[in-house]
Amino acid sequence: MFTIVIAADYCNMKSCSKKNSHTMCKYSSKPAKECGEVKCVGLTDAERKAIVNKHNELRQKIASGKETKGKPGPQPKAVSMPNVIWDKELEEVCQRWINQCKFGHDECRHVDRFIVGQNMAQASSTGKNTATVESMILLWYNEVNDFNNTKIEKYEFEPKIGHYSQLVWAKSTKIGCGKIEFKDSSNWNKINLCCNYGPHGNVNGQKIYEVKK
Predict the structure, then answer these.
(1) Contact 99, 30 (CB under 8 A)
(2) Structural domains present in the chain
(3) Alpha helices in the chain (DSSP H)
(4) Residue 110: beta bridge partners?
(5) Rg of the chain over CA atoms, in angstroms?
(6) DSSP-derived secondary structure for 51-69
(7) Fewest C-beta in 10 Å: which of 17, 27, 118, 174?
């Protein structure tokens, strides 16, 4: 018995705006020289589990109507908020991008199955960097403090709440993340975390989730 794996043609991904712009096409799997002194590449199984668990904990907090914060709050209950599950392909693409040590979004990260959304976080320290994947995810979630609860059923993009809205976007049910730890040229100890989501959220005019009346 054997399994045939058909690799995606990332260099000709039709959902990318131009040919050869996909992260898996543009970059090699090794950390870029811009990273400086690389300390750790990739996630442990425990971190993968922690990422999924933290996302689902926060999604269910919103779904059950337990979040009182917002501008205004509280955040209403959801009719449905599926748990996210880990996706190996999304992880692979995210790790390829995070290995470039560029803090920002890549040009194209989509997969054959769907368009992909993305959240990025960075923790920096002159001493030991003690940031965890959970603490970095909370940076995204805490944007709920600025989230207008009237925008749930008709999303309007705002940079300061975009990480939060992607995290709790009900139809984004697959997640894959990447991480790199490095010391840059200015001697800052940095941890960069990337999470890719599919299908993507943050679509203007669409529902983040269906509000339970």
Answers:
(1) yes
(2) 40-198 (3.40.33.10)
(3) 23-26, 45-63, 88-98, 133-141, 162-167
(4) none
(5) 18
(6) HHHHHHHHHHHHHTT----
(7) 17
Alpha-carbon distance of 24 to 148, in angstroms, equals 36
Helix (H) or strand (E) holding 85: strand 85-86
Question: Mapping DSSP to helix (H, G, I), strand (E, B) and coil, where does residue 108 land?
Answer: strand
- For helices 133-141 and 45-63, give the axis angle rounded to 10 degrees: 30
Token readout for 1 is 């018995």
**Listed residue (58, 39, 15, 45) closest to 123, CA to CA:** 39
Q: Tell me if the pTM is above 0.90.
A: yes
3-state secondary structure of 193: strand
pLDDT tens for 70-87 read: 999 999 999 999 999 999
Closest among 92, 184, 170, 48 to 129, alpha carbons compared? 184
Burial degree of 193 (CB within 10 A; 0-12, 13-18, 19+): buried
User: 79: how many CB neighbours lie within 10 A of its CB?
Assistant: 12
Q: What letter represents residue 159's amino acid?
A: P
In what helix (H) or strand (E) does residue 95 lie, and over which residues does it extend? Answer: helix 88-98
For residues 149 and 70, the answer to whether their CB atoms sit within 8 Å is yes
Sequence length of the chain is: 213
Nearest by Cα to 179 from 142, 140, 139, 131: 131
